[in-house]
Structures are given as structure tokens and as C-alpha cells.
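Self-study notes.
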Amino acid sequence: MVSLDNLPRRAEIDPEGMLDLASSMADLAGRGFETGRAALNGIRFGEISSVAFCGMGGSAIAGDLLSSTFEDSVKIPFSVRRDYYLPGFVEKNSLVICSSYSGNTEETLSVFREALEIEGVRILTVASGGELLEQSKKKGLPHVELPSGMRPRAALGSSLFSVLGALSGVKDEIPGFKKERVEAEVSEALEVTGKKVLACKESSPEENNPAKLLAKRLHGKAPIVYSSASLTHCVGIRWKNQFEENAKTFCHANRLPELNHNEIEGYKFPESLRRDARVLFLRDRDEGERNSLRVEATRVVLTEAGIASEELSTEGKGPLSRTFSLICLGDHASIYLAFLNGVDPAATLSIDRLKFILAKRR
């Protein structure tokens, strides 16, 4: 198998510099937090009764991570919406966060327009441009403008941390969302992510590089990502999306304990699955004793079925640090796997084709 150290055709395979962007995650996150904090300086939402975070793809993952990071303290309903319509609980005093990196995602624009029609709803938009940003400015709505020129999935650091920066400036209007905790979480996450980048970046030798080694173990395999906690389930979805979009490799994600009630019966057929699958268990210190036992038991069942598996654990103290330690690993590994597959990690030809077909039928 080809070495991932000093790839001779790296610039040709990765013309948009997706690997460089992955290695800039901590820097993008830090700048995003400051941008978000400055954008809402002095703006008050008033009392907020519920939050609906609306987006698709990489933008929606930001909402998942925000929800899971603060689920132990936020005292109001917080929903991540991947659709054309708002959830039914949105009403006066609800906060609707519309996140679309391009600013032209049709599902997000649909919920944005719906939110505008609800009296008393609060709206925050996050975009690098497009109609969403244009309409927000025109209507005088609070908004965060992201740096442009990236693939949306490469902008997760900017999109998530800009929202954290923005919400850290709204006092205690979201019950349980404390500015002091946000700042502490962000500070540690930037430090942990920075260290993880150093371990995973291109200049780190393959023999000591966890992302390069993971990519090699996954080459020619179908990754199946199992999570043992809500925190790591968000990461599992991110890994699924990144392996599919960057490496063009089919990936599946599920979580414990639910998969123990159904999915473990599905490994018998087709028989080729047992040869081609590699199960990745994402572990976290707060997964709970019963889920820890379930991981061990599930690995026994998989081994008896002839299916390879391994465990990868979060690093850091706070939930934001722990999620980003694994996100950083998965992002880098998905791009190295793209190199092994000989594909451009930025290109999304099937998605582009789908959008073309949909655009013709408007």
C-alpha cells in the first residue's frame, strides 16, 4: 500500500487544499468564536422559550454538537431541524437559528421564510453569503458572516464556534446557557484540537499519525461507526458524512443501546459484508456503565461473526473538547482515505448532479 508520507501527487489529488483546511480547524474555530461574539455585541433577544437549529449537512452537524455539548444544562427544548419546515413548537419567543454556509440551501431558506411569518420569533442567521445573508441584512436581523471560499463541510469550526460566540453574548436569555461555561469549553477545545491537529497533519510521520493509520486500516473497507453516548453519536454522524463526501466511501452510523435491539442481527447477509465491514466504536468517559458493557458484549458478537472492530476514545475534559478530538481525527482520516482511493476529497459530483436535476424541476 502506498505511503501517506510525502505524497508526490498531493496537490493534484487535493487541488482545493482540503487537508490544509482540516489542519486549520483550531485556527478557524478560534476566529469563528471571535467573529460570532462581535456580530451580536449589544444585541438582546429577550427571554427565549425554545431553540430550533435549522440546517443541512455540515451546517446541521454544528447544531447537533451544540445541543449535545450543553444538553446537561440547557433547560428549554432544543431541536436540530433538517427539513423544509419548522417544528411545531416554534412560536413567539422561540429562537430559530438558520445556518447555511452558502446561504442558498433551499431547505434552510424555506424555514427562514416560515420563521419570518411567526410573530415574536427571534431569528439568527449564519452564512458566508447568498440569499440568506442578503435577506438578513436587508431585514436588519442578527447574523454572523462566515469566511467564504470553503466547502461547507470544511467550515465546521467556523460555523459552530461562531454560533457559540454569538450566543455567549446574549446573557442568560437561554436558560442554562452560561457565558462562563461557553468560554471555558471553547478555550479547552481550541487547545485540545490544536494538539490533535499536530498529531494528524501531513508532516506527522505515518508511524505516529493516528489519522493516517486509521485511513490505512479502512482502505478497501466499509466503515461502520458505533457510538456509546449522545456526545459521540454526533461525532459518528460527522464521520459518516466525511467518509462519504471526502473519501467517496460508503459509511454507516448508529448508536448504543438501540443497535443491540435490531442491527446486530443484520450481519449474516450478504456474506460479503462480514469481509468488507470494519466497525469503529467511538468511546466516551460519560457513556455510562451499561453502555460500556454493551460495547464489550457487542464486540464479542461481532468477533464471533468474523467482523473486525476497534475502539477510538475522546480526549479532553469538557464535552466540546472531547467531541472535537474525534472530529479532528475523523476529518483527517477521511481525507487520507480519499488519497488512498485516488479521488479528490473536495469534489462531490453525485451531489452536484442531484442539485442539477432538482433545479430543472422547480
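Second protein, same conventions, sequence then structure:
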Amino acid sequence: MSQGKGTPEKIGFPRHILFVATIILLPVLFGTMFGWVHGTIPLLVFYFLRLYGKNVGGKYILFGWILAGIAGIALEAVEQLIFSLTLVPAGFILSDSVERKESIFLSGMKTTAAI
């Protein structure tokens, strides 16, 4: 993300958190229309970890999950949130596999085992 004059990275922080929370909450709230979004959760985690690194990308994911968790508890949709949470380690494993330059087969097997 580019940092122009007077536009610190902190401005993008809430936007990224809301994006992560929205992607998590779409299949929770509108499961019949957006149930397929569950499959993109590992890709979302992978994207943020590769683009922003483990520290910053991990913060976006963590705070997005906290926000989605609060909304899910308020909307009484905890079961669907727990299911979405089980898909997050797959994104971490994929990102780690790319960092270690592992083969596609090995990273796919690790991800499948994590899910």
C-alpha cells in the first residue's frame, strides 16, 4: 500500500479490518446466497499474509475476526463463525508453504490435513 503525504497506513487499517469481517460474515448471515464464500477464507488469509507480511497481515486478520466474532455473537450465529474459523489455518499454511518454496503437492497435502 502506498503511503502518500499525510496518508499514514493507519487510514487503511480500519478498511482492511472491515473487509475481513465482511468476508467472514457474508456466509454467516446469508448462507444460502453466499455459502460459497467459505471457500475463499483461506485465500483471504493467504492474500493478507503475503501482501502485508505476517505481523501486519496477521493483525488485519485477527482484528477482522474479533469484529466478526462480536457481530456473530450479537446475531446468534456462533456455529457458522466457528466453521469459518476452522478454515483460517489453511491460509496460514499456504502462505508458509510459499515462503518456504515447497512443492504444490506438499502444500496442498498440508492444507488438506489442516482442514
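Instructor comment on the second fold: The radius of gyration is 15 Å.
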